Amino acid sequence: MIVQACLNGARPADYHPQLPLTIETMVRDALACIRAGASEIHVHPRDTDGNECLSAVDDLMIAIRRACPGTLVGVSTGEWIELDREATRRKIAAWRVCPDYASVNLSEPDAPAIMSLLRNVGVGVEAGLASVADAERFVALPDCQRVHRVLIEIEEQNAREAADVSEQIYETLVREGIHRPVLLHGFDATVWQFIEQARDRLWSTRIGFEDTRLRADGRPAGSNAELVADAVHLMHSIPV
Q: Which residues form a coiled coil (predicted)?
């Protein structure tokens, strides 16, 4: 049961003035978030123009591990990053300083192959499930029990519908006997409700500019570390 800091995601540069897009700012935020109580870091590496880029992983991993030794660090493998299946596979295979884990979206056609490739290069898999269809596809995979963790990551913005989808995903995992750690998170309007749900279910969660720029009380966040501090406080609070 941890709080993972998700530093930037696919957000554009104008999403927030403190959105970290360079190695220096990502390292700065990673360190600040660990000091604020985060246990892990999830980050989308960027090239020198600020664009997401899988080739930027090596340099970023070296820098973050120098600043935050012992902290687990993960990245995304989203198909939108390279927009080319073969380029995605080639760049992952070329990593020389690998992240500890990488998220794979089960909604993407090449997900099973990317999961296998990650295991072959020694990287843990976070299986991203955004729908019941994703969950059903995941549990049918022969290696589904070998993932690092399951991400239940809901983009639906209606609170009730989002909660229903997350519960149906989890019920699918339970029905098929999948016993892997769960990290639950929402997006924009549902972020804080899912942090509370994660707390109540004793699951892990995440927070950062990838998911929201608003603090738990609705005020704009000044930094990723502020968001992390709010989430850590909420996760350690006693449910009313």
A: none
Enumerate the β-bridge partners of residue 216.
none
pLDDT, one tens digit per residue, over 212-237 is: 999 999 999 999 999 999 999 999 99
Residue with tokens 């070998």: 146
Instruction: Please count the helices (runs of H) and the strands (runs of E) in the chain.
Output: 9, 8
Residue 133 sits in which domain range? 3-235
Q: Three-state SS for 135?
A: helix
**What is the C-alpha to C-alpha distance for residues 208 and 226, in angstroms, rounded to an integer?**
9
153 in a structural domain: yes
- Asked if residue 158 belongs to a domain, the reply is yes
187: domain CATH number?
3.20.20.70
Distance of CA 176 to the CA centre of its chain: 24
For residue 228, which phi and psi values (nearest 5 degrees)?
-60, -45
Count of domains forming the chain: 1
pTM over 0.85: yes
b/e code 130-158 from CB counts within 10 Å (16+ = b): bbeebbebbbebeebeebbbbbbbbebee
For residue 188, count other CB atoms closer than 10 A to its CB.
Answer: 11
- Measured distance CA(218)–CA(185) in Å, rounded: 17
In a domain, 240, yes or no: no
